[in-house]
Amino acid sequence: MDMNFIDELSRRLAGALPPGLHALAQDAEKNFHAVLRAQFEKLDLVTRDEFDAQARVLARSRAKLEELERKIAELEQRLP
Length: 80
Prior knowledge:
80 residues, mainly alpha, 2 domains
């Protein structure tokens, strides 16, 4: 999970506190950060870069599989 995203979200949540609670903003931001990080880790999320890398690997694997299937079909046609 992107830590910058969690940091920014924590700051925004702390900033949304009513004016009388701004003295607690730093503590609240730390608590928001800890809670958000723990919850996002439970979701087992991946970054866009990781997702895109795996999509490229899958596309290459699919192309290779299709090529092997084509070769097998050609070989099977040669059998009596």
